[in-house]
Amino acid sequence: MRRFFLKIIRHRNWRRDLEAELEFHREMASAHGNAIPLGRASRIKEESADLWRFTFVENLWRDIVYGVRGLRKNPALVFGAAVSLTLGIGANLALFSLAVELLLSQPSVRDPNSILYVRMGGNSHATHEVLEFLQASGVFADVAGENEEAFVNWNDGAQTRPIFANFVTKNYFTSLGIPVAYGRGIEPRDPDEVVVLDNRFWRKNFKRDPGVVGRAIDLEGKAYVIAGILPASHRTLQGFGYAPDVYLPRYLDDTVLAIHVRTKPGMTRAQALAAARAVAARMDAAMPEPFPYAHGVSVKPLTTLAGIASDPEGAVVGAFFLTLLAIAGLVLLIACVNVAGLLLARASARKREIAIRLSLGSGRGRLLQQLLVESLLLCALGAAGGIVLARGVTVALEKIQLPVPFPIHLHMDIDWRMAVYAALLTIAAAVASGLLPAWQATKESITPDLGRDRKMRLRRALVCGQVALSLIVLATGFLFLRNLFRANAISPGFDLRHTVRALVELPATAYKDDFKRVNLYVNQGVRELSAIPGVESSAAAFILPFNDATRFGEPLKFPDTGERRNMALYYWNAVTPDYFRAMGIPLLKGRYFLPTDEDGAKVVIVNRVFAEQYLGGREPIGCVFYRGRGQIPYRIIGVVEGTKNITMGESDQPQLYQPFPQVPNPKRTKLEFVIRSATPPLGQLEAVRSVLRRVEPDAGLEVSTLYSSIGMALLPSQVGAVLMGAIGLLGLLLASVGLYGIMAYSIARRTQEIGIRMALGATRGAISKMVLGDAARLVLTGSAIGLATALFITKPLAIFLVPGLKPSDPLGFIVVVAVLAATGFVASWGPLRRALAIDPASSLRYE
Amino acid sequence: MGTPNLLQGTLDLLILHGLQRGPMHGYAIAQTIHLLSDEVLTVEEGSLYPALHRLELDGAIRAKWGQSENNRKAKYYEITPKGRKALAAQEQTWARLSGAVQRVLAR
């Protein structure tokens, strides 16, 4: 180490110093009359020079200069390699930054590691009394709450519509330390009517005007003063790009809140959990209603990665991205094989140069270093292009409005993680593409006569490897594309094409706790919607499949035999009589609900799977059961076909419907209308909007076709298919280019042989057969290797696929092998025709 | 009879030994060795200066520019604690080696 620093400090001066020193020596010697024989000064300098030099660094620099000079004379090689590597590295970087944003990004809060998400009594959200109790206990530095999936009605002057709101406690911004771009966050001493805007919402609706801070907007009929605007880079605690439009203080007393606590310095997660449990126990003693808090207390870290590790759904997302990155890595490998092919060709062209350098005493390691530096230069060029490409792709990705029913806003930056990943990719690519040709080049030149055979074998191995890699990439891409088409073809169990859907958020101040009024509104709404010309039927429901789902797990008890089913799991909904008609869900047995199913005995309609699984062979119609511990009898009056609930890929699940008026839920002010129209539903949106606005002018409204609003369900397979398909195509493109290059080169090398064969009387047909047969053997060998590998490594993909589609699906592999075989054929055909067209006599002089 | 060739490694030993007397420039080191050996050993510049630079890089000696006795700028070498340790070790080795050679020749 010391030596290294000394070298750095004195490196510039050593030569001058040495000369002065020698000069002094000579003067002294002559002054003393000592004829000390003067050694060869140049040799002394050389010897000390070796001591003082950073041999490695200086050689490296010389190699870089030499490499740049050599590559500049070879623009075709540079262009081919740079394009291949730009595509390969760019695809990898783009995917990596997407994965980083989704999996590794941190929320925009001060010191995110000290914030924990706390559940009390197993509930995701708790009442404000719970938060206040926690705060008062003093075990945590701070306690903040939010209801992140709320809506609020915004009147922009022209119309009222529901926007996504995050109801927060007033200490939310200060205790979490959330930075704002303009103005300030909500502060504890603020009045109730303040609001903080999301950056994107502000950009879209307020023309990026920072002057709106301090002005008021109309929310729920009240004037809210804009306190501040969040920065564009704001990331919410929920992650995954989730970004509500506005933040406002909790405005209803019974708004439930997710609890976020800031731990005191030095507090571990285990200590925090123990502390939360202790507080919950005290809370149970102090307020026994409405349920025990001490059960199911949990704490969860916020950072996305730690959160994902504790969440099974997150594990699937993580696995998906790992697969994606692995496949992208294979694409880069294909690009590297292309470059290796190019470098091999170049190596044989500069055989003479390398032989001369070796015979002049250049070390083999030195030559290897020189050749590797060249491939490193190419890869650096590719990495530069790749970064530009990835940046372009991510900017485009950020702009895309995802078809999901809630606001998602991704922002991906080039940060140090990207830079490190890019550097690693570059080095890996340089070694992958350069090592083999460099090794081969230096080895071959020593034993030139043995080399030729071995080199052809190496090149053939490269072709096989490339075919195998492309097969894996293509097979995966194809699998996801098929998955997409399958998923699109699967019926959700209801009619998507003829239906309009309207989400209504009733003004909570007027409708809360007044279920009679909600019912009146629903009846009037359904009546007036049905009167729209062209509308066949309309209905209201608490929820719509794919947009929301309520799943119940409770015991069922049958009074006829006293039999008890311990845990019946089913999806629940409450609907008005025409729901099944409007949705196009077929009735199998019994009858629909009637308007008279209101005050009398409780009735339900179940789906086929519910009847099969839970009724123990009873005749469904007329079957009576109790739910949970209750003593109210529910009678089944109809059996319908099932629908999908959350994803297209799910298998049929039990479902239970209740008549809308029989479920008095005073807190629920959000409901859905479905309107079935004989005319195209897109043309009915305006009519539906105006009818509903007339019925309740203060309600928030969102009207769309049912088809567009279930986009979320198709999203995972769509995104996966598009990404994988794009990567598959990229892989095919790169592989075809490489295959073509290698085939063309190997046939060009055989021109002389072909000439001799023709001179000896071989027919063109025989030669074509020989060359094409050779190519076919290569492609088939590669395919066989790729097939075996692909069968093995695509197994874990099954979790992303719709039921009935397996990773080992033979059709996909057949198609992919056919595509590769066609590519190989096309790649060989052109060069072969050129070789055959040459006059045998001139081809003998070819080399 | 010419100047005997210095054994590999012994030059370092002689330089370090000479520097025990205090800082010296390269010419003085060569002269000291020459005189102390009763003019038997002659150190050529060609071996002296590379050896000095190597020792400096190893940290056994350190160098700085100073004024010579005739008022000229000269580079002075000085032994470091690390150099003293190396010298002790090398002296021991040399004593063992020369003793062994003596014994062989005496029989």
What portion of residues of chain A is helical? 40-55%
Count of beta strands of chain A: 21
Q: Structural class of the secondary elements of chain B?
A: alpha+beta
Radius of gyration of chain A: 36 Å
**DSSP helical segment count of chain A:** 26
Largest sheet of chain B: 3 strands, antiparallel
Low-confidence stretches of chain A: none
Biggest interface between chains: A-B, 29 and 24 residues
**What does the overall shape of chain B look like?**
globular
What is this structure, in a nutshell?
The complex is a heterodimer of chains A (847) and B (107). Chain A has 847 residues and is α+β, with helices and mostly antiparallel strands.
Which features characterize this protein?
heterodimer, A: 847 residues, alpha+beta, six-stranded mixed barrel, 26 helices, 21 strands, globular, B: 107 residues, three-stranded antiparallel beta sheet, 4 helices, 3 strands
Describe it.
The complex is a heterodimer of chains A (847) and B (107). With 847 residues, chain A is α+β, with helices and mostly antiparallel strands. In chain A, 53% of the residues lie in helices and 16% in strands. Chain A contains 26 helices and 21 strands. Chain A has a 6-stranded mixed barrel with strand order 2-3-8-5-7-6. In chain A, helix 4 crosses helix 13, helix 13 packs antiparallel against helix 14 and helix 15 crosses helix 25. The longest helix of chain A has 42 residues. Chain A is globular. Chain A starts with a helix and ends with a helix. The model of chain A has no long low-confidence stretch (mean pLDDT 80). Chain B is α+β, with helices and mostly antiparallel strands. Chain B is 57% helix and 15% strand. Chain B is built from 4 helices and 3 strands, in the order αβααββα. Chain B has a 3-stranded antiparallel β-sheet. In chain B, a hairpin with a 5-residue loop joins strand 2 and strand 3. In chain B, helix 1 crosses helix 4. The radius of gyration of chain B is 15 Å and the shape is globular. The two termini of chain B are 25 Å apart. The mean pLDDT of chain B is 83. Classes of the chains: A alpha+beta (847), B alpha+beta (107).
